[in-house]
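Subject: Interface between my chains keeps coming out wrong

I've been trying for a while to get a sensible model of this assembly. When I model each chain on its own everything looks fine, but I need the whole thing in one frame so I can look at the contacts. Pasting all components below, labels as-is. Any help appreciated, I'm running out of ideas.
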Amino acid sequence: MTPNMTAVAERPSLRGAVAKQGNRYRDYALVAVFATEVLFWTLQSPAFLTLNNLLNIARQASTIGIMAVGMTYVILIAGIDLSVGSLVSFTGMLIASTLIGIDSIIAALAVALGFGAVSGLFSGYLVSRLHVPAFIATLSLMQVYLAGAQLWNDGGPLSVTNSAVLMLGSGYIGPVPVPVVVFAVILLCGHWVLSQSVFGRHVYAIGGNPEAARLAGIPVRRVTLTVYALSGALAGLAALLFVGRLATASPLTGTGLELQVIAAVIVGGCSLFGGKGNLRDTLLGVLVLTMLQNGLTLVGVSGFWQNFATGVAVLLAVLLSGDVLAKMRKKEA
Amino acid sequence: MQELEQRPGGVTGPAPAVLAQGVTKRFGGVVALDNVTFSARAGEVTALVGDNGAGKSTLIRCLSGVHSPDEGGLFMNGAPVTFSGPNDARLAGIETVHQNLALADNLDVAANLFLGRELSGGPRSLFRLRKKPMEAKAAELIDEYGIRMPNIKAKVGAMSGGQRQGIAIARAVGWGSEVVLMDEPTAALGVKETGRVLEVVRSLADRGLAVVLISHNIEQVMQVSDFVWVLRGGHMIADLRAENTNTQEVVHYITTGVGLGA
Amino acid sequence: MNSMFQRRTTRLTFAGLTASLSVAVVACSATGPGGSSVKDTSDRQLVIGHSYQDLSSPYFADERKVEKALAAKNGYSYVATQASNNPATQLTDIENLISRKVNLLVIDAIDPNAVVPGIKSANSAGIPVVMLIRKPAGGDYRSLVYLDSIKDGATACSEVAKRLGGKGKVVNLTGPLDILAAKERSTGCTNELKKYPGIEIVASPQTDFTQRDAEQKMTDVLQVHHDVDAVFGGNDDIALGAIRAFTSAGIDPKTKVVIGIDGTQAGLQAVCNGTYTQSLATFPVKEAEIVMDTAAKIHTGKSVQKEVLFPAVPVNADNIKAAVKTAGYPITSCPAAK
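Reply #2:
Try treating it as a single job with all components included. I did that and got this:
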């Protein structure tokens, strides 16, 4: 005789109905914001909707975007990686020095991805095994890399001339800048893993309820290490792209990048508490913020208003995201 | 290895589905369980009661593989078993419905039912999730247990307490387990839902599972259980046939350590 | 370990040792350098404390390197602090240097008002103060080695105007305007360019002083203004970013006028390559030399000039070779040198 639990689930859920509405609202809100912004800047500046400028935006969005893919994974497990900006600066110096010794893009790529991954593994180890809060662990690493990048060449930059690296950062495949192609590949792969693979499912589970994940036999520590390693490796890749773009490795290249990346992921609707978010939305977040910077410069309103606008965007995103709505619901319930 | 076993209370029968014998567990200087013996048989509801801090959770965690006993051993159907983690216990057929349900609120029903045991195409498909088979099986289980679910793709966090309880139980039972440990299954439910859950508990046992029920509510315990074991301060002080005792006596055991009368 | 301390005699001995050790440490520090009140300081070692605004910029980093080397050469003790452009942090740095008993304090003031309490503390402690970059709003100092950033901006942009023949489109890429030097350079430039009716400043984007940000902003500007003739960069890094943006947009930077300020090694290398028209160099080497020279004079009781203008030297293809030599940069290839 099969136990009948119909009656157990009887009471229709008012909470459920409101939650469903909330989620739908959130999904549409981001796309609406994106569309509105495109419309706004198109009206503000004739230079905005030109092919050249759109490709320009795409290229600028690519480096931040690549880092944002890694950051999305990290934030999904309720972690954070504040070291990515300084890591970009430091890895850039490493790349430039490597190229002086071995003038090969393969070597540069190996160093970029290798060092980034190792750094990420270290962060992940601090977080998952030593239980250092991610904020503290990655903040400390950020300081270390900042100093490291400056000490590397006595505060000075290093010049890069390798043509393949310059092609990677500044070149084109047809009309499309190479970094955009790289970003597209990373984004698609990242999205597939997150939405279609067992690993991706585990990432969401750990973010949603780490204890439940552990009890269910999910290798939480291993997933955490992998996620941080991914974030580091992608920061390393971004460093290579920056070096290729600027033909220079500077200790200042990564200044403020971690905040830009985190802002993009948050505007994309990822919850800092973990378990909620996806790469399609992260892409929209990256584009919304990149277009903001670009539009303001095109229109000639630059400077402090840029910081203001970015800050307001992040605040709005957090307010409109599920988190605040959920807390409000809980209060009423 | 004994097939037949002398049960306390003078009843013999086949080996229990799960048996903890002489189990001692220490945490630092604290002795959580001291030479505890406990068993549950297939087809019966065995309750484990006791005051806060008596060691109920620790015993359950030993049975479900979260902790390893420092002394003593575990047996299933007469054969000794050791668990190095919750996975081992699950593979051996022991499932747990945790007090907080251990559901991932941000995932849907199918994802929760298959949590940690996702169906995938293996390495060749880069561990791609086989979502359709998982969703089909989920629908099957939901149907089988008659949980009313208007939208099976909804996130579990948006569902009512009763639905979530149903999912947690379906997950524990749907994997073909032999032993189901239920930790305070009615704690968060209203009166009507509680009654229904107790019906489910009884019917699981009727299906042939060994159900271990932890609860603070002795009245409820007496409604559905066949046997009641009392833990007090890390010691198993009584194991009683439900039909030979009553709520008052069980409570007396819990609070004083002794029974009523001769 | 426990059993050892349980013995009463061991405890007493340990306490005694600690006490005598503490007394010795206190006694030594009290009579050490900086603890005496001797007026004629020339027979004491010179301990120089330099409070920097921020050491992440190549300019200050270079300066510090040279000062450290010069101090070592002359047998001085030298310590530098940096405040990450935060005026409150700079006050703390100054207090710490005073506690550390430096006998000469050099200050690169972030904010001329906020720095005054720090100068006054040094005054009370009897430590002579040398101010760099800009004049403070109060407090006593022996010498001020100042940059006139407004004049530098004007000089740079009058050169821009000259090379454009008084006609053309200019982009003013500034540094962060909450940093005074950046603001003053920008103001100096725009005021100068106002004199030329044929010159139009088509955009004035603000950057964070980094090459990455400057490259991005310049690329954005080029979307709107396709025919920019000249760029004024708030520092060398900004100018280099603009040059890179030109290159990526398919525009040969050698056909444009790009002028900036700083005179860093990367900047001078670009002048050598011909891509960078001119950098107004305030050589960190020169500033370091002036600082050390002033410090030595004060320490031996000689008189020093109250205010010294630190000149910004225009460096372009005409005088690049000499400039590289003065700066001491290890630049080997210089094709554009005339």
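Reply #3:
Confirming on my end. Residues 4-93+177-256 of chain B form a domain with the Rossmann fold fold (CATH 3.40.50.300).
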